[in-house]
Amino acid sequence: MMVLAGNDFFGAGASLLLLVGYHLFLRYRRSSDPLYTIQAVNAIAREAWVETVMNASNKDVLAVQTPRNSIMGATFLSSTARPKRSPGIIAGRKSAI
User: What is the pTM assigned to this prediction?
Assistant: First the structure.
């Protein structure tokens, strides 16, 4: 029983060390290369898109439809995630898995 507790503490410590190490590495990389993460690239692309839409007078519908389509896509994908995971339960029979 004592060996299991020791393994748990070792695993938790190793996980914490890896997490802290990853975040330190990520901070170092972002300071030397701001476009290292995809989040930074997306933020710059969003800023450029907003500037383009704000400066163009004929893009009013685009400014509304783009966020709407993004929300609709996320809603559709989230609503189909559960049925794909367990088709046997939805059909009213037990799944073999």
Answer: 0.52
Residue in this structure with the two tokens 């800023």, named with its chain if needed: 47
Beta strands in 3-72 (DSSP E): none
**What are 59's two structure tokens?**
């893009």
Amino acid at 1: M
pLDDT of 15 strictly over 60: yes
Helix (H) or strand (E) run with residue 41 in it: helix 38-55
Q: How far apart are CA 53 and CA 65, in angstroms?
A: 12
Q: How far is Cα 11 from Cα 9, in angstroms, rounded to an integer?
A: 5
Cα 25 → chain centroid: 20
Q: How far apart are CA 23 and CA 16, in angstroms?
A: 11
Q: Where are the domains of the chain?
A: 1-33, 37-97
Query: CA angle, corner 80, sides to 78 and 83, nearest 5?
Result: 125
Look up tokens 């990853």; give the residue.
Answer: 22
